[in-house]
Amino acid sequence: MFALLASGCGDSDVPSTEATIGIHFSRFAPEAVRVAAGTPVTITLRNDDPIDHEWIVGSPQVHERHRTGTEPFHAERPTEVTIPALSTLTTTVTFESAAKYAYICHLPGHEAYGMVGTLQVVEP
């Protein structure tokens, strides 16, 4: 399993222990981040939109559950968070092993609009 952490953004091949993911016009930027396995990563989520969004990172099974689920707000899991309109939220996660996960906003229509990104966990 994993705990919530994030890593480097941009074109760097070197994973880091921090990442900032902005949200604007119902899009994530960057659309991809790289983090190191086994190391806590702090992810700052900055919502510049006048509407709420969510950032859910996980396996295809996690996303399928949220596509058909009814959770209107997320606060219990560091990999499933709600970012209120015009606010910033920070979460910390540790991914135990190398893997590739999607991060998606599952609010109605947001995934179809393209509010999707990739989190690549790599061995340090």
Q: How do the strands and helices of this protein lay out in sequence?
A:
Blueprint: E1 8-9, E2 18-23, E3 28-29, E4 32-36, E5 40-47, E6 53-58, H1 60-68, E7 80-83, E8 87-94, E9 99-104, H2 110-113, E10 116-122
Parallel strand pairs: 2-5, 4-10
Antiparallel strand pairs: 1-4, 2-3, 5-8, 6-7, 6-9, 9-10
What does this entry look like structurally?
The relative contact order is 0.29. This protein is mainly beta. The chain has helices at 60-68, 110-113; strands at 8-9, 18-23, 28-29, 32-36, 40-47, 53-58, 80-83, 87-94, 99-104, 116-122. The model is unreliable at 1-11 (pLDDT under 50).
The outline comes out as globular
Summing up helix and strand content along with how strands pair, one would put the structural category as mainly beta
Could you estimate the helical fraction of the residues in percent? 10-25%
What's the story with the biggest beta sheet? 6 strands, mixed
Strand content bin: 35-45%
Number of strands: 10
Strand order of the largest sheet: 1-4-10-9-6-7
| Overall pLDDT score | 87
Radius of gyration: 13 Å
Report low-confidence residues grouped into runs of 5 or more.
Answer: 1-11
Question: Which keywords apply here?
Answer:
mainly beta; four-stranded mixed β-sheet; disordered N terminus
Short synopsis of the structure:
The chain has 124 residues and is mainly beta. The chain is built from two helices and ten strands.
